[in-house]
TrEMBL record:
The chain crosses the membrane at residues 20-43, 49-72, 133-154, 160-179, 248-267. Keywords: ATP-binding, Membrane, Nucleotide-binding, Transmembrane, Transmembrane helix. Signal peptide: none annotated. Residues 333-562 form the ABC transporter domain. This is Thiol reductant ABC exporter subunit CydC. NCBIfam families: CydC. It is found in: Cell membrane. It comes from the Bacteria. SMART domains: AAA (SM00382). InterPro entries: AAA+_ATPase, ABC1_TM_dom, ABC1_TM_sf, ABC_CydC/D, ABC_transporter-like_ATP-bd, ABC_transporter-like_CS, P-loop_NTPase, Type_1_exporter.
Length: 568
């Protein structure tokens, strides 16, 4: 039950609505019992005495109970659903608040489809927590207690039978089915996560599967998963039906027993026959309220598992980040003994990196594939948290600053950049919603995309653009951000080298006071950089200006030699 504590606390934030839902649930329960009781009494009274005035009064009571039952049931639904949807809203907000700081590292742990299934499916499963788990037992206990007290006045046997019926249908049967469910451990939610993850991969990898002629195999695998998911759903449905039928059957037995005991008491002269039909109707009426308990085991397990799955994503110790804003004006960045290792990996991706990026400097980070260049950039950007050492902004640790204030000062272009379905204009305005057409066209011109119109449609993920066009559009977007610190991860790797060179020259010329940190595979054109950092296996093995590195005749010089031999 402790897994549900967080959900319970969020639910109880809506105290007023939860209390009103319980009050109206109890009123609706009593009204439906009273409705049936008075109809039972009316039948007996009409048959046995036929007093007109009493019959009129009872008839009026019947109408009143019918009306109040409907109004109370409506109010109960209104308040319980309002509390539920507010709770779901609060849950989503609190979940996302805890999720966001963990986001970059989560991608390595969860497949995107599974993450989506948890964020959407498991959160939605929790809508049943208040509606079907939390308050039905509370309402039921009150309605039964009141009804048992009422029947006690007429017949102790009926009261005892109702108490036994309550224990059986509200406690023992749900507990038995909950036990069965936990024992069988149906993995319906896990199946849903796996199915969603596989379906997402199927969509992402559709083209490659087709090229490698593996589409059919993968499709059959998916169909099997869908079948097994449906089987799990069917099993769960069957259990609910068993639970419902058992409860209904027991309720009927109890009502028959009430009838038998009542008949016996009437024959023995212990009970006025006028009340016999009423007591039987009371029993039928009170057990009408028991139906939600049939679904209790399924919803209890479902809520518990959904809460566990959600909590398992965000239960890591959050990074401690300050709320300070980065100071306005020039920024020096330094890496001090930086260390980073990806979760679950043995080998560090960065080891003991110490380097300064002075204000207005241009730095190139080079090195073989997999040497840690992108990781270094991601740690400098505060996308990945350093596992040792520090990133310093003007000598102050990056932990002191909020991520938002750091990102606000960066112009970032990564290897892969996302474009949203829309137009060139809407994608550019992501960087500056106030940018006018003139500014956006100037940015497009700066990256040699002047043939693009701002109205041009951009498909999902920018798939109607070439790789080089996407990269240039990403640079144009960064230009519009107008921040003083550029962090570029191979921004022109898919652009022809002449155009790439022109774009770099324009960027440097138009932003003379900005700092640039550029990850590059390409060793040509680095002569103009103030500093070149060479990484290998996560370690900084060389740094200096182009001339210094060439003079030193070390690793970088060796790479240049190889490059020249290949070109020759
Ligand atoms: N999400 C991840 N999980 C685990 N290991 C990772 C992850 N991303 C990168 N790595 C590993 O970290 C190391 C450094 O990767 P990184 O992407 O920083 O290299 P890189 O120098 O930028 O490579 P490239 O030039 O090919 O882009 C590599 O060994 C890589 O396998």
């Amino acid at each position: 039950m402790k897994e549900l504590t967080q959900i319970l606390l969020l639910t109880l934030r809506e105290k007023r609505d939860v209390a009103l839902a319980i009050v109206f649930g109890v009123l609706a329960g009593f009204a439906s019992v009273a409705l049936l009781a008075s109809s039972g009494y009316l039948i007996s009274k009409a048959a046995l005495t036929g007093q007109m005035t009493v019959l009129i009064v009872i008839g009026a009571c019947l109408k009143l109970f019918g009306l109040s039952s409907a109004i109370s049931r409506y109010s109960e639904r209104l308040f319980s659903h309002r509390a539920t949807f507010t709770m779901l809203g609060n849950l989503r907000v609190s979940f996302f608040e805890r999720l966001a700081p963990l986001a970059p590292e989560l991608y390595g742990k969860y497949r995107s489809g599974d993450l989506l299934a948890r964020i959407i499916g498991d959160v939605e499963s929790l809508q049943n927590f208040l509606l079907r788990v939390f308050y039905p037992p509370v309402v039921l206990l009150m309605v039964f207690s009141g009804t048992i007290l009422f029947t006690l006045y007429f017949s102790i046997y009926t009261a005892i039978l109702l108490a036994i019926g309550y224990l059986l249908t509200a406690v023992m049967v749900p507990a038995y089915f909950a036990w069965r469910k936990s024992r069988k451990d149906w993995k319906i939610r896990e199946s849903r996560g796996v199915l969603s993850a596989e379906a997402a991969e199927f969509l992402f990898g559709f083209r490659d599967l087709k090229i490698y002629q593996q589409l059919n195999g993968k499709e059959q695998q998916l169909v099997k998963m869908v079948d097994s998911y449906q089987d799990e759903q069917k099993n769960e449905g069957k259990e609910e039906v068993y639970s419902q039928s058992t409860n209904g059957f027991l309720a009927l037995l109890v009502s028959l027993a009430v009838l038998a005991a009542g008949a016996y008491s009437t024959a023995a002269g212990e009970l006025d026959g006028l009340f016999l039909a009423m007591l039987v109707m009371v029993s039928l009426g009170v057990f009408e309220n028991i139906s939600p308990m049939a679904a209790f085991p399924a919803h209890f397990e479902e809520s518990r598992k959904a809460a566990v799955r959600l909590e398992s994503i965000v239960d890591e110790t959050p990074r401690i980040k300050g709320e300070a804003e980065l100071p306005v004006g020039p920024l020096t960045i330094s890496a001090e003994n930086l260390h980073y290792i990806f979760p679950g990996e043995q080998r560090p991706a960065l080891e003991d990196i110490t380097v300064d990026f002075p204000v207005g400097s241009k730095t190139a980070i080079v090195g073989p594939s997999g040497s840690g260049k992108s990781t270094l950039l991601a740690v400098l950007m505060d996308i990945l948290p350093a596992k040792g050492g520090h990133v310093l902004f003007n000598g102050r640790k990056s932990e002191e600053f909020s991520q938002e204030s750091i990102w606000q000062r960066l112009n970032v272009v990564l290897q892969e950049n996302h474009f949203f379905y829309g137009t060139i204009r809407s994608n550019l305005q992501l960087a500056d919603p106030q940018a006018d057409d003139k500014e956006m066209n100037a940015a497009l011109e700066a990256v040699e995309l002047s043939d693009f119109s701002l109205q041009m449609e951009v498909e999902e993920k920018g798939q109607n653009l070439s790789g080089g066009q996407r990269q240039r559009l990403a640079i144009a977007r960064a230009i519009l951000k107008r921040s003083p610190l550029w962090m570029l991860d191979e921004p022109v790797s898919s652009v022809d080298s002449a155009t790439g060179k022109v774009i770099y020259e324009r960027l440097f010329k138009n932003n003379p006071d900005s700092s640039f940190i550029i990850v590059s595979h390409d060793l040509s054109g680095l002569e103009g950089m103030d500093q070149i950092i060479v990484l290998e296996n996560g370690k900084l093995i060389e740094s200096g200006s182009y001339a210094e590195l060439m003079k030193r005749q070390g690793y970088f010089y060796g790479l240049k030699e190889i490059e020249q031999q290949i070109m020759a």
